[in-house]
């Protein structure tokens, strides 16, 4: 059978078969290995993917810790950047959770808890702000108001009712104690402080009510009612603060803590699941891989066996005869050819080989001859190749020469174009110059029109020539890029302002936006960069019919910038975009006709950008807009520019348009300001605002704008307001802003910085002298004055009436002169005449001048103030002769305005100048206290003054130490409040130095100032203790009469129980004057002390004990 | 697992749909009354029925208990009627947000039982520690709140209940009401890692305190008014347990408490009555314990805004009287709550319902819940016995203690220890 197969199969197929089988087995092995490897690879990749995703998952608990830490950082320190980090971590964790592995089961729960946490945090954020506002602004303000009102009440009471004044001063002390306890609650969160504070509040109120019941004087009753209202208001504000505090604590300790706890638990579960999943995966992979390995092994073994068998077969059937024949050939080649070729009868190739060997033997001789002929031929061929090579070399040289010649020609052409263009420019400039001159000569309308055409055409021609010149320069390789220090803001701003007019005429706004990482100074070529930007902006404006054009500068990294110029213009399709950067092509031939231009601009821009080692690209959508993006390598120059004076300042930005608001926001932050931005003015007061930026609406300045600005000026009387006008709108002179303190869109960062630093520096100077605050204070003494404002401009009217209404003036408004006269007359008829008139110059119907004359004729005593933008001497003269009392320049300076009002209106609530009474002799001159001044503040009532001094001693006995404690424990807010009230009280008793140093400490709290305050306080207290002794010495001594004494104790007990200080005081002074047996004296003194400190409950206990004994 | 989760979700959704916050906006000319409160009583069915019965518009503003309390205390203009629990009353009264209710305008006043009027449902009942509602009911002559009867009350008594803990009898052998069942079980180390507490310091704090007291770990002078030292002591015990991972965590909503027990994350926890009902409806054998130490009770209060005008005040009285008119009491009885004048609600219930919910007898037939599903199977018996029996055994009332602020910071420590 095999023999038959051998016979049948020729040698070649046999080898092929063998090779085929070897290949087959090899392929099997290869296939198996490949399959094994690739599935192993797949498994590993999957495992790696899984692991990496899982790793992300396991980072979640870290992020959650960070989240909670930042949340707590915000909660306890009010750190705003911590709050932003919370936002960041929240988004981050949420994203991670969303992308997390589906095999983790509790993702949904975790997201739910995370969301709940974040909701809680946001509530916390707003509640924290509310609470801060209540406890640090509203409450202290109210407390101050109440203290001032009580002090005024004491003043008013003094003359007629000294006892009542004393009671009022006790109410003041009670109230102060209640605020102390209240502050204690907010600080330490102790319930006892809260109940004490509420108790003292009630007692202060009761005291006032008692006081009121014994008084008929209507004015005083009104004052008492006012204070009671204030106390009511204070009480409810206090209660709100308490609930806000509790709500705040609840959110922190219950809601946030519970959700954080839950999330962490979930995260832990996730980590366990993850660990389990990873383990499971590894086991799976192990199992599958080991299966694969055993399969590969089996197949490889089988293949090996098959190969061994076939190799043996081949050796036997092929190698043996071939080696014999090889031996014969070897002999033949040696020339001997002795051996005989064995005869193999095979029909296969071996058989053929033996036949061939024989033939070979015969042909051997003939071959030698042929070999010789061949040698000769080759030599000939070599010679000819050498000749051809020489010819080719000669031709190459000729070609190189031609190429150089051609390049030279191109150079010459470019030079020629460059020269020609330059030559053309000179005459065109002459044409332009002449045209300009001619325009200023007398021309007919038609001539002017022709001239305008000449002007426009020449300019267009010049632009084209410039483009061609640039282009030829580029072609001639003459484009050079300079490297100098470049002010990037300046470059961009210049480009924008160059196109502003064009944009404005099309009613398009150009927005500029610098990303905050962009520096101001770079190394580069400002002219070339400007050229590119101008060109792109020009295109953008040209191809935009409505919407906006924007330029955005971003820093990709430290030395690479991305400048984007985008528009909402006609846009381009794919094909048009591809043609863009080719010479002499615009997107559409028809646009050339419509919009003009050579179409070289973009080519030039591209060349310039490439020469700067940058790239330029375009992205556009038909009908939607186009964005050109330039990316450039530019080296940053260290910013030597100093924005220190703006660093850390807080700006309040009010801008309706979101796009513009964001842009402003960035620019302001970029120059170091902290920005709080709103869509519109919020009534909520924001503290520590250094400057307000208010964007006026795009349309005519509306009444709303005016109202907003007035409200802002009233709400932030010391803060400068910078108006931002829309493009193309110039500010009119009005409103409570200063000249040159406006900005205009689009944002020019350089101007913005200049304007703001000027405003802020001016402001620093102004707040230092503090006169505005004083004036405002003084305005209050004129409350209730009737004033009328006549102006046809609503805005102006609102500014004036807004300022006056703030000071509780009664303000009327008139829209022109006639209206004014009618209203003034009407008021006079009703016997409620106006006392002061503000009148504008230019008004319809009757102007200010005529109105002034008419009013003066009828009302000789009326004060008239003219508001005018024009304060020329001649104008002033006209008004003064018409009877005006004064002229106030517009725009109105608040300070000047107040000064004018104060100078024409007499105080309505003036303090009486009272002579000291006969008791004053008991009060000695003191070093630390101006007792005269103090006495004057107490309305000249020595006993009232003495009692105030006493209260002062009681209140501040431990003052020095408690201030140190506050300072050491960094309770700055409380310390500031304490300083504020110390200042007020010290000033009212006449301790001016102490008051001043408390004010200094209030403004800039540091240890040195604190020591000053303490030093002075101790001196004051030391001196005061001496007058106390003297005053006590003045008292008469009454002999002890048990019956009388006991009767008085009974009366005292009932008075104390009913909390009637009016009844208490006379009894107390009797009791003090009685000479008592020593054992009783101590306890009685203690009881009196209690009553004087308003510790009535304890006093009652002592009294009851005394009476029982 | 998946199907279990889906069931859970469905269950949670069903509960959620009852209490999801919404604002009913009215466009007709009927007068409108605004009610601020919690999900417990601000239910859509009640709102619709009251609107229909009184021909008025009702706007319900439901929210979390602390959230609505803050809103009410700081802004009395934000509501006409305020519904919450007696533990919020002192805060609102101190904050001057609510005003007295005139009992002459409450037609059912005479039928309101003694629980709120004298503090005792029967002779042998305990008053319970903490702010028992009777202590705060009457507006005294000096403007404070006290038990002395006057013409003015600080709140209208209506919904109330006793709370305890629930446990899964698949894992914890069923105990005997008032005999073996004890708050101390919450601290049993056998259930380590499977215990949850309600996340509300004015409630959950007492669960922890009762548990600690039941295990003789601490003794309170007055469990309803713990001193700082007692709080420190209590939380050092709780924190020790927490460090051993005794608690699975805290829950902030009834659906969440249902979820925790249904997927076996906990086997014993603080619970509210609707949560127990839902679990039983899902087939989870949750038993609401009747602890031998007594219940933690709560009492609903309905208050009148200080700033309400006369027109709205009239509506408010209408709404209050409606609550005591019978049907609402029967409706909430089916959720396991009690009303202050049960005799008036009795005609609105079947005999079987009355016997089961109020008398503590085994159900004579299967009873439906307010959602129309079967809530109680025939023969089932309510743990803890009758209404009277349950309210005779009050250990403490939910209370905002004087040391509330301090307890909040302690709560935080507990969560993070």
Written description of the protein model:
The complex is a heterodimer of chains A (1109) and B (417). By secondary structure, chain A is of the alpha/beta class. Chain A contains 33 helices and 18 strands. In chain A, the strands form 4 sheets. Chain A has a 5-stranded mixed β-sheet with strand order 2-4-5-7-6. In chain A, strand 16, helix 21 (848-858) and strand 17 form a beta-alpha-beta unit. Chain B contains 15 helices and 17 strands. Chain B has helices spanning 2-19, 44-54, 65-74, 89-94, 114-117, 201-214, 228-243, 254-262, 273-281, 310-323, 327-333, 342-345, 351-357, 387-392, 404-416; strands at residues 32-37, 57-62, 81-85, 98-99, 101-102, 138-139, 145-146, 152-153, 156-168, 195-198, 247-251, 268-271, 286-288, 295-305, 367-368, 374-376, 394-397. In chain B, the strands form 4 sheets. In chain B, strands 1, 2, 3, 4, 9, 10, 11, 12, 13, 14 and 17 form an 11-stranded mixed β-sheet that branches. A two-stranded antiparallel ribbon of chain B has the order 5-8. In chain B, helix 1 (2-19) packs antiparallel against helix 8 (254-262), helix 7 (228-243) packs parallel to helix 15 and helix 8 (254-262) crosses helix 9 (273-281). At the A-B interface, helix 4, helix 6 and helix 7 of A face helix 3, strand 11 and helix 15 of B.
Features of the shown structure:
heterodimer, A: 1109 residues, alpha/beta, five-stranded parallel sheet, 9% strand, B: 417 residues, eleven-stranded mixed sheet, two-stranded antiparallel ribbon, 15 helices, globular, disordered N terminus
Secondary structure blueprint with pairings:
The complex is a heterodimer of chains A (1109) and B (417).
Chain A: H1 2-8, H2 11-77, H3 80-98, H4 107-158, H5 162-188, H6 191-213, H7 218-333, H8 349-439, H9 445-475, E1 484-487, H10 488-505, E2 509-514, E3 521-524, H11 526-542, E4 548-557, E5 560-567, H12 574-579, H13 589-595, H14 601-611, E6 615-621, E7 625-633, E8 635-636, E9 650-654, H15 658-670, E10 674-678, E11 691-695, H16 703-715, E12 721-725, E13 742-744, H17 749-769, H18 771-779, E14 786-790, H19 794-806, E15 810-814, H20 817-829, E16 836-840, H21 848-858, E17 863-868, H22 873-882, E18 886-889, H23 894-904, H24 931-937, H25 942-956, H26 959-968, H27 972-989, H28 992-1003, H29 1007-1034, H30 1042-1057, H31 1061-1073, H32 1078-1092, H33 1096-1108
Chain B: H1 2-19, E1 32-37, H2 44-54, E2 57-62, H3 65-74, E3 81-85, H4 89-94, E4 98-99, E5 101-102, H5 114-117, E6 138-139, E7 145-146, E8 152-153, E9 156-168, E10 195-198, H6 201-214, H7 228-243, E11 247-251, H8 254-262, E12 268-271, H9 273-281, E13 286-288, E14 295-305, H10 310-323, H11 327-333, H12 342-345, H13 351-357, E15 367-368, E16 374-376, H14 387-392, E17 394-397, H15 404-416
Parallel strand pairs in B: 1-2, 1-3, 10-11, 10-12, 14-17
Antiparallel strand pairs in B: 3-14, 4-14, 5-8, 6-7, 9-12, 9-13, 9-14, 15-16
Helix pairs in contact in B: 1-8, 7-15, 8-9
